[in-house]
Write a structure and sequence with these properties.
two-stranded antiparallel ribbon, 2 strands, XRE family transcriptional regulator, Lambda_DNA-bd_dom_sf, Cro/C1-type_HTH, TPR repeat
Length: 409
């Protein structure tokens, strides 16, 4: 368990970083208020840590005003506390994963033994294993397996021909998707963007139109993350148009359609367009009703359960705590649902309670998320900022040890 002495090495608050970015531009607080559209009083509270700077739309507004990347405000990536051995193991592998990503498209120069080991059924099993570990939020074990798996998949894609080559690239795409999600969970945004590019390129080589369209879900997410809502929207609209041109009406196509409507809803929510967000959520609900089951096509979870989860996520993104809490009371996430996704849902529920003025309920949701997925929860920017503000605006609480595990002063 982290010791009190760990506090000396804890990161600054989002508010402190915001103030430092402002000072670098030689702006006073009034100038930042004018450029961002917030009041002077709000800017002061954000910088003092008296108002939570955790919502994506708020961070994006400041990052656009200051012409910086959102992670310069959130402080990502984070280093796990010294006693979080699994977290340190997960972080330690990021360099090896980065090297594997850089090798994409380069000659693999495999040894004869590596070529002899190329067996697609075995590789398919290994890809399923590593993605299963990711869904379980077992980041340390995922990190242990990913670098060598990516190398073996790259060799397979290079030496295979015909249908085997297309199958190898399909597996490589899944491997890159796993790497992307793993890196995002650790706050390695730049490396995750590199992985997203590899997903797009390798998907094209599969010659599977649905696989290519699915990859655009992540491409849209890259622009959404930096507040380029028009570009993200254009990618989403293009993907939905492409889906309409694909022949047939199989469940994979239907699932992808629903997933893109959810992405569109998130894009509009972060752009503070509630009406458009609600419209796309409603369309996703209709698609989920047509589908009638939860699916995980192309690593994109979609179905009635995921739509219910997003019905909480979207009001959280817009700071509507009361609506999110009310909606959460109706949601029942099955125990067999992936811990990774259940954890994200619990984090959203915690933030909803915080916005609704229920700090004890927020702590309970966060600690349940930590029980399911310790590293995913402790490295989450929204959890860190929310807990930091709750501690700053309250006296010592029974939850201080949890805050220390997050690395929050």
């Amino acid at each position: 368990m982290p010791q009190l002495s760990d506090i000396e090495a804890l990161p600054e608050t989002n508010g402190n970083r915001l103030a430092e970015l402002r000072r670098r531009r030689r702006w006073n607080q009034q100038r930042l208020a004018t450029e961002s559209g917030y009041s002077l009083s709000a800017v002061k509270k954000f910088e003092q840590g008296l108002r939570s700077l955790d919502r994506a739309d708020v961070i994006l507004r400041f990052s656009k005003a200051l012409d910086c990347h959102p992670t310069e405000i959130t402080g990502q990536p984070y280093m796990p506390p010294g006693t979080d051995h699994d977290g340190q193991a997960a972080v330690a592998a990021t360099a090896a994963v980065h090297r594997a990503l850089l090798r994409h498209g380069r000659p693999t120069r495999p040894a004869d033994a590596e070529v002899a080991r190329v067996e697609l059924p075995s590789l398919r099993q290994r890809v399923a294993e590593v993605n299963g570990l990711r869904h379980k939020a077992a980041l340390a074990r995922t990190a242990e397996l990913l670098p060598q798996l990516l190398r073996d998949l790259q060799v397979a894609a290079e030496v295979s021909t015909g249908n085997d080559r297309r199958a190898a690239f399909d597996l490589l795409t899944s491997g890159y998707e796993c790497a992307m999600q793993y890196l995002y969970k650790l706050g390695r945004t730049w490396d995750a963007t590199l992985a997203t590019e590899r997903v797009l390129w390798s998907a094209e080589e599969t010659e599977d139109p649905l696989r290519v369209i699915a990859a655009k879900w992540y491409d849209a997410g890259e622009f959404l993350a930096i507040g380029e809502h028009d570009e993200a929207g254009a990618i989403i609209d293009g993907a939905l148009t492409d889906l309409g041109a694909v022949r047939g009406h199989g469940p994979e196509k239907t699932s992808l359609e629903g997933a893109f409507h959810l992405k569109a809803a998130l894009n509009h929510a972060r752009a503070t367009d509630q009406r458009a967000a609600d419209r796309h959520l409603k369309l996703a609900e209709e698609v989920a009703g047509e589908l009638g089951e939860d699916r995980n096509d192309y690593q994109l979870q979609f179905g009635p359960t995921n739509v219910a989860i997003w019905s909480v996520t979207l009001p959280v993104e817009m700071g509507r705590g009361r609506d999110a809490v009310r909606q959460a009371e109706r949601v029942r996430v099955p125990e067999q649902y992936a811990p990774e996704r259940r954890t994200q849902y619990l984090i959203d529920v915690g933030r909803a309670h915080f916005y609704n003025g229920q700090p004890d309920d927020a702590y309970r949701a966060f600690m349940e998320a930590e029980r399911l997925a310790p590293q995913q929860t402790r490295m989450h920017a929204g959890v860190k900022e929310t807990v930091r503000v709750m501690r700053r605006t309250a006296r010592r609480t029974p939850h201080d040890e949890f805050a220390l595990r997050l690395g929050v002063a």
